[in-house]
Fold these 4 entries.
Entry 1:
Amino acid sequence: MSALLIEDADARELDGVMAVMERAFDPCFGEAWTRGQCAGTLLLPGAWLHVARLGGAVVGFAIARIVLDEAELMMLAVDPSARGRGVGARLLDRFAATAARRGAARLHLEVREGNPALRLYARAHFASVGRREAYYRGRDGRSSAALTLARAVEAPR
Ligand SMILES: CC(C)(COP(=O)(O)OP(=O)(O)OC[C@H]1O[C@@H](n2cnc3c(N)ncnc32)[C@H](O)[C@@H]1OP(=O)(O)O)[C@@H](O)C(=O)NCCC(=O)NCCS
């Protein structure tokens, strides 16, 4: 089996990123971003992209940003065909390492209540620090709360 690589990337990888985006998110929750949202975010000061590659193909990505000493994981997704093998955890570790290198003291992220990704974040020592009601609105009109999770840039050992 080919090795998993986690790489620094830029907007030239958006074709691969959007292919994962389209497959990774259930449209009923309204969490996925458009290509324009991804491209626009990557133009913001302090924003960066990591891609996960298996056998050359992009199978996951993380989009993040640092403002002052706070880094935010804005988007994390892994192709359904590559899940459950630690790709998400590796992207999350790389996000934390890059944030530390760029001078972050704290890490933040926002996730829909009920998203199975919460388990991944809990295992990486993120804890809930806030909640926004009805933040996500799906195609069927149903809404879900967003949970804000945070942790210090260095995970406890
Ligand atoms: C969340 C996500 C990135 C995890 O990717 P992954 O490569 O499968 O993650 P890992 O293999 O490192 O393991 C993730 C852990 O969370 C659990 N998990 C993550 N996503 C899950 C899912 N969709 N269904 C069930 N369990 C899931 C796994 O069981 C695993 O926990 P365990 O090892 O204790 O069993 C991936 O499921 C995904 O792309 N989801 C859709 C996009 C999304 O919701 N992103 C997060 C919000 S921005």
Entry 2:
Amino acid sequence: MNYADAVALLRHLVTIPSVNPAASPTKSDTVGEGRLARFIFQYLSDAGLHCLMQEVLPGRPNVIAVLEGDSTPAVLLEAHTDTVGTDNMEIAPFEPGEEPDIVRGRGSCDDKASLAAMMTAMVRAARHTPRCSCIFAATVDEEHLFRGVHKLTTEPLPLPVQGAVVGEPTQLRIICAHKGTVRLRITVLGKAAHSAEPQRGDNAIYHAAALVEVLARHAQQLAQRPAHPLVGRPTLTVSTIQGGTAINMVPDRCEIKVDRRILPGEEPAAVAAELRQLVARHANGRFSYEVEDILLDPPMELSPDAPIVERCQRALEAAGGCSQVCGAAFGTNASKFAIAGIPALVLGPGDIAQAHTATEFVRAAEVEQAADIYFRIITNQ
Ligand SMILES: [Zn+2]
């Protein structure tokens, strides 16, 4: 079957901006998933699918399309409608271009390639006999707080499902395990003073600098821990530092942000507690500080023997793809499905190396192949 229509659809999706409001709170004309959600709703309704809008945040709904047939079990296909911001882009963010082999623009790879391929597969499946059962969900807010998938998985689904296929750039490989993320804000507190008399103050930057050294040593120790067979070793990055207000003042605050990538088997809360302990041992009453959780996002691991994995492997083999299961360092909505008791894997067109970049693009051939694979997953062939 020819799936060139998936690429044409993707080019159109790129022209509809859907930047996550957290990435660009001021650019109101390009921000939010509302316009894209309305387009998806209309497109799939026109193709005869039963669609509903699931309000998540004001003007930011998930779109759910349901195909109800005789063949069981149903599968859930999910991809996200929001994108990261466009400030760093070196190409026109909402112009996909006309090159036959490539689609460019913000979201072309992450995650509109998966959206377009899934939508095309759903439209094909709606015309297929015997009718099969499937849910497609286009969710909001994946690039910030995952509130779209949270809403989707905490309300009853329209059909029971065997599992979920999360569309993200995996170069059409099946991802069965990925890391989770723990992010903390550590605010080191000192005492302000005039820099002519620094002995009257307590320099928060000096304390924070020593703490950064401690965290860097911890990162080196993490690199010695045993590797997970699919996702490798845990990591830690001190990713921002901010402190001081004026060149002639002893700073009374210095804030650092820490990003720790956790392995399947590690608990986000336990890892956050481990980091808090590390900070407490180092501070040891010499300075005060506050620690705040920014994100506790769990890792994901699905048995390669799960029926949803075998189903996707069959589809990949039939479509001439690679059916070997892999791991990924980046987090996805799959871990949120797993928490809700829905077995989930990640599988989609595009390369994660292109996601969020200044020149984001996806190869058209991969989008067409993805539509074919999703169609075979839906129809279980
Ligand atoms: Zn994504």
Entry 3:
Amino acid sequence: MDYSVLAYYVLHPFDDPKEERDRHEKFLRTLDSKGRIYIASQGVNAQLSLNNRDVEAYLSFLEKDERYKEADVKIHPSSEHAFHKLSVKLRKELVAINQEVDLTKRGAHISPKEWREAMEKGDPNTIVLDVRNNYESCVGYFEGAIRPDIETFREFPAFAKELSSKIDPSKTRVLMYCTGGIRCELYSPLLKDLGFKEILQLKGGVIRYGLEEGEAHWRGKLFVFDDRLVIPISKENKETITLCRFCQTSADTYYNCANMDCNGLMLACPACVEKERGCCQESCKSGRVRSIETKISCPKPFRKLSFDEKQKL
Ligand SMILES: [Zn+2]
Ligand SMILES: [Zn+2]
């Protein structure tokens, strides 16, 4: 494992995000790095892979800067880069929900250990809320979690509103989690505005939980927004809970449909991807279809991500 995949965020005001974008990118260009770093006036959200020899240099780059003091950098080993290229971008919002969020109203953070204990207590007035999209939560989730059937970040506010009409928010304690923690930071104020009094956010998200508590109370694997797409949360984590859409055997690898106009996400096994020429359905086999050779060996970037990236914020 010669590479490391790093994920962190900071919510700290950046007065001149453009200056920070330039500075950050300039430094990363001196390293063997690839990834996606978003910089906004509200903070930074970063996912990147580094050659192991450069990890320390990058961590000390962050440590030297007060604004990154709160960064909880989660690190996974990897045999290769988890991104195609390096992009350091300015964003209006770190999580694209198209609304102002009052970050002073965030929920309380609880550690992975506290999270596990809270789950083991099993309190009838507590809900476990997965705030990720449906294509993420279908490959892995915490036992008993409410999993919204949403496809983009933008749909979360409407989901939250509906949830608050179905259960009494003033009597419900919410245990909230996402991949790395940042979505909880931005969604918890929305829930507070809807009347939820007690919100507990899993600090560092499922990534940190897997590193510290292993797969306790977790089912399946973890969806991530990089070339790996689906990863185990810990060394022991091997469970697959989804099926190949064609042959119904166990499969948790995502592919994009080879039809460029469809490009839809599909869970499939390698044999069926080959047999179906990389297409998600019969009608996709005609038209603009990519060759599938590269697809089978490395299932690569996918629609949801490029869709979100394309959004002009
Ligand atoms: Zn199959
Ligand atoms: Zn298709």
Entry 4:
Amino acid sequence: MNAGFIGLGIMGQPMARHLRRAGFPLTVYTRTAAKAEPLLAAGAQWAGAPAAVAAASDVIITMLPDTPDVETVLFGPQGVATGLRAGKIVIDMSTIAPAATVAFAQRLREQECEMLDAPVSGGESGAIAGTLTIMVGGDEQIFNKCLPLFQALGQNIVHLGTNGNGQRTKLVNQIICALNILAMSEGLHLAEILGLEREKVLPVVASGAAGSWMLQHLAPRILQNDFQPGFMIKLQQKDLRLAQEVIAQFGAEFPGTALTYALFTKAVEMGLGEQGTQGLINLFKKSHQL
Ligand SMILES: NC(=O)c1ccc[n+]([C@@H]2O[C@H](COP(=O)([O-])OP(=O)(O)OC[C@H]3O[C@@H](n4cnc5c(N)ncnc54)[C@H](OP(=O)(O)O)[C@@H]3O)[C@@H](O)[C@H]2O)c1
């Protein structure tokens, strides 16, 4: 099975590397060509545009920031859709709006091609380790056909039903993650205000009922003043916006999500958008009026 990969960012680079290591012939494209160099050295082929990736591949994977990026790569000039032939499969592993993914799948079906939405969880470290959780929406037979690709990237790979259900599940994941990040930030900020030794506080609270993925992976970075992105604040803010849009369709009240979205938006406005999500704590340091 020839694989194509578009979007070689924090997640896409290590994911594409796993596909090569698993032996899939691989064609890649990303906006900043230099980012493809390590993959080309590992035997991947460069394509000059998304259409060329589609022409060379049976399955085309996209890992891009947001809904408009996926739309441009799929349907823009020199987009994937212009290079497709009937029977090819598109897998979008970005986190985007569920309604858009359903519409994209419909447009591709008109070209006799199938699409899966397959967003992931596990962060940069999960992508590097090849241990991502993968939440898949779309036709079950197509899912089964693509399973060997997914198995090269992750460990917990679940088919959740029709197109859009992967993205819907990812939004559930993201509101839980974001509220956890807020909880971690406030907890560590309180420890600091109280004059506690955070190096001692962290292992104690992480080993009790407050323990979480965030405390395990992100809190140590806060203590080291390391705000490099594994997952950028602006992308977490984007995910909360997507969740808010879906919630609004049901007229439901999600006060924690609304508050967390407002705080991540404030962090973006304060110029923290390119920090990792652990940088949310800097919001409290820079402003005590929240
Ligand atoms: N980071 C995480 O921990 C994490 C975890 C789970 C899910 N996600 C989701 O995964 C997706 C990617 O996240 P990321 O952290 O990898 O973001 P990222 O580092 O910003 O990577 C996105 C990549 O897409 C490329 N790109 C953007 N527009 C493009 C276009 N029109 N054509 C070709 N390439 C384009 C970017 O361009 P360049 O080549 O110019 O850099 C970049 O390499 C997002 O939807 C995010 O929400 C991220």
